[in-house]
Amino acid sequence: MSDSTHDRDRRRFLKTLAVAGTLPLVPRLFGAAPQSMLTRPIPSTGESLPVIGLGTSRTFNVGRDPVKLNDLRPVLQAFFDQGGTLIDSSPMYGTAEEVTGVLLKRTKHPKLFSATKVWTDGQQAGVEQMEQSRKLWGVPRFDLMQIHNLRDWQIHLPTLKDMKAQGKLRYIGVTTSHGRFHDELETLLKSERFDFVQLTYNLEDREVEQRLLPIAAERGVAVLVNRPFQRSGLFGKVRGKPLPDWAKEFDCESWAQFFLKFAVSHPQVTCAIPATTKLNHLLDNMAAGAGRLPDAALRQRMIDYVARL
């Protein structure tokens, strides 16, 4: 989401919770033990992942600015403290990988699921880029390596398969955040074996429900959701509008949770990866991974409600 645009609304939300003092969410937002984070299995192995992860696009592209790094450290620490494990990045995101590595050294994280991407052309360039990413993160190996926006996938996929077979990677995947790649991605998912696919899915962009999510289900592919807020578009639609009362039926206390709970309540979605630089936004996002999720009837009600705005 856009931190500058929505910071005031989230501060108001957190302040309201703190004053109320009776909501079960308050302790986990203000430092006590978190509620149990919901998890989903990775189909290819059965390993569980928390349903809320952390993206780094734009938000972690802060270079070596000491003030910004210092501001991000408690955000990442809170992510781990609230039960998060999966962090997603890419060489495409400027200095995000370097910043991730610096922050990992400054935080305590009993469990990390490291996910990044290869984003270049050519076999040797891909190998070198992945090794550079590994060094920037400071990890012995990546849990997940993804082909970013299908770039040169015919070349990179054999490399990723070999690296996985040698134990240099745990999982392999492919990503897109653009509808124009959906036809090619559909063909690729049908013809090749991937552990993960990453794609855009939210209340305003549900195109993947038609073909890609059913194929992922059929092929046993875990699904990571990027842009769960349609960047800031969904917040623009609801600005100044109260949550519907029936949102309480799935333990929802903010619009961010409304949007995230919609995404991760789809039975095929494994994990959503919202990005933020703000601690209160991070805590709000993580709260979406606890409590009840909307069922099919409530999901349709959410779709209808937002469509009318």
Concise structural overview:
The protein is an alpha/beta fold and 309 residues long. It has helices at residues 3-20, 25-29, 66-81, 96-105, 123-137, 153-165, 182-191, 212-219, 233-238, 255-265, 279-287, 296-308; strands spanning 39-41, 48-50, 54-55, 86-88, 113-118, 142-147, 169-175, 196-200, 222-226, 271-272.
List its salient traits.
two-stranded antiparallel ribbon; single chain; alpha/beta; 12 helices; 309 residues; 43% helix; eight-stranded parallel sheet; TIM Barrel
Helix content: 40-55%
Per CATH, the superfamily is NADP-dependent oxidoreductase domain
User: In percent terms, what proportion of residues is strand?
Assistant: 5-15%
Mean pLDDT: 91
Shape: globular
Which segments are poorly predicted (pLDDT under 50) over 5 or more consecutive residues?
1-6, 13-33
Oligomer: single chain
As laid out across the biggest beta sheet, the strand order is 3-4-5-6-7-8-9-10
| CATH fold group | TIM Barrel
Count structural domains: 1
What string, H for helix and E for strand, traces the elements in order? HHEEEHEHEHEHEHEHEHHEHH
InterPro entries: AKR2_Oxidoreductase, NAD(P)_OxRdtase_dom_sf, NADP_OxRdtase_dom, TAT_signal
Protein name: Aldo/keto reductase
Domain NADP-dependent oxidoreductase: 52-296
